[in-house]
């Protein structure tokens, strides 16, 4: 089990002559990903989901809160002591080409982590070769065909499979897939998603799926939880199908109905459809973070920040003073 409690992260961005500015990437995020389970973080670009994934994988620090891996709170450990814990969590990011060293063959790419592991566990050279073939077979690649090749000699889909195979060399407990198919040819995407699903089932590895596409989140982690993130805050959280079938937060409804407009929602009165403008983290920080874009805002929204909570009659957690089920008509992919 990996849990986060109240994770806060602020970046200082170099600004203009007026000085630097602070970007609140995460504003106190809680999450729990069970062993062998799945969770998906969704939200539009800039909402903080990649930052959260990098924190979970140990690649980014956080300012406040606690990250607990298994039974161990990371704040109690020194930097070096955290490494074995973070090794259990492997990040698969969107660009497999930049993740692989172009001057190394696939054999060399897999050999490096495997020989380290062999050294630590007193295993033989033969084991390294066998294990390399084994991890490649787990991701659907034939060792005889790919080991001698360089990354540029493989398709995008094959490269992403090699990245996943390399992650498997350390026997991870969790894979963090950050938009893992977005840079891969459309025809090869389903194969990678099916592979991640298969690894969950065969190896019991848990998968954290970071995406802006709810359909892929549902495909891999349909039995897990969906976290909808808006400007660094989780605004809705619950079982994937519950949130998709009956979203109660207007932001989730807009995400599901089709980015970038609230499409398919019945608008009250003459209120115009609200386009989702690019996120600006410097927008007014008082009250509900979605107020400025919300067609359903009420009296309390501008002055008070709703926290994630459960209210009567709503099965999922939400951060809205006026949660209401609204039927969302998702646009077919062909129209997006
Ligand atoms: N290293 C950094 N330095 C400064 N600001 C950063 C850094 N990393 C992220 N940010 C800012 O933090 C906010 C959250 O970014 P993050 O990449 O986590 O969002 P995201 O939802 O994953 O977006 P995307 O889907 O585009 O990757 C953004 O405003 C981003 O500009």
TrEMBL record:
InterPro entries with a match to the protein in the record:
AAA+_ATPase, ABC_transporter-like_ATP-bd, ABC_transporter-like_CS, Oligopep_ABC_C, P-loop_NTPase
Keyword Thylakoid among UniProt keywords: no
Among SMART domains, the record links this protein to: AAA
The cross-references to Pfam families, in alphabetical order and at most eight, read: ABC_tran, oligo_HPY
Q: Which PROSITE patterns match?
A: ABC_TRANSPORTER_1, ABC_TRANSPORTER_2
> SUPFAM superfamilies given for it?
P-loop containing nucleoside triphosphate hydrolases (SSF52540)
What's an example GO BP annotation here? Answer: peptide transport
Keyword vocabulary terms for this entry = ATP-binding, Nucleotide-binding, Transport
Q: Which molecular function GO terms apply here?
A: ATP binding; ATP hydrolysis activity
The ABC transporter domain is annotated at 2-256
Identify the PANTHER family for this entry. ABC-TYPE DIPEPTIDE/OLIGOPEPTIDE TRANSPORT SYSTEM, ATPASE COMPONENT, ABC-TYPE DIPEPTIDE_OLIGOPEPTIDE TRANSPORT SYSTEM, ATPASE COMPONENT
The UniProt entry, under NCBIfam families, shows: oligo_HPY (TIGR01727)
Protein name per Swiss-Prot or TrEMBL: Oligopeptide ABC transporter ATP-binding protein
């Amino acid at each position: 089990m990996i849990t986060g409690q109240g994770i806060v992260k602020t970046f200082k961005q170099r600004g203009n002559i007026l000085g630097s500015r602070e970007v609140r990437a995460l504003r106190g995020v809680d999450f729990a990903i069970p062993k062998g389970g799945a969770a998906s973080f969704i939200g539009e670009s800039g909402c903080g989901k990649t930052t959260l994934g990098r924190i979970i994988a140990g690649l980014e620090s956080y300012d406040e809160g606690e990250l607990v891996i298994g039974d161990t709170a990371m704040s109690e450990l020194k930097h070096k002591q955290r490494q074995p814990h973070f090794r259990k969590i492997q990040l698969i990011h969107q660009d497999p080409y930049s993740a692989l060293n172009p001057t190394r063959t696939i054999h060399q790419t897999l050999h490096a982590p495997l020989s380290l592991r062999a050294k630590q566990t007193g295993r033989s050279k033969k084991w390294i070769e066998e294990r390399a073939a084994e991890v490649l077979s787990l991701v659907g690649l034939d060792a005889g065909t790919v080991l001698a090749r360089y990354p540029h000699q493989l398709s995008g889909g094959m490269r992403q499979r090699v990245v996943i195979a390399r992650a498997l060399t350390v026997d991870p407990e969790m894979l963090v897939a950050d938009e893992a198919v977005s840079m891969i040819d459309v025809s090869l995407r389903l194969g990678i998603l099916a592979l991640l699903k298969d690894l969950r089932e065969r190896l019991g590895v848990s998968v954290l799926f970071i995406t802006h596409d709810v359909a892929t989140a549902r495909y891999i982690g349909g039995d897990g939880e969906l976290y909808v993130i808006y400007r660094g805050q989780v605004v809705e959280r619950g079982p994937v199908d519950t949130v998709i079938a009956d979203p109660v937060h207007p932001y989730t409804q807009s995400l599901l109905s089709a980015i970038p407009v609230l499409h398919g929602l019945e608008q009250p009165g003459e209120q115009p459809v609200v386009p989702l403008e690019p996120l600006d983290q410097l927008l007014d920080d008082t009250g509900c973070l979605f107020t400025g874009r919300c067609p359903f805002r009420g009296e309390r929204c501008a002055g008070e920040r709703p926290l994630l909570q459960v209210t009567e009659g709503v099965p999922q957690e939400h951060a809205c003073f006026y949660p209401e089920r609204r039927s969302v008509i998702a646009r077919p992919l062909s129209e997006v």
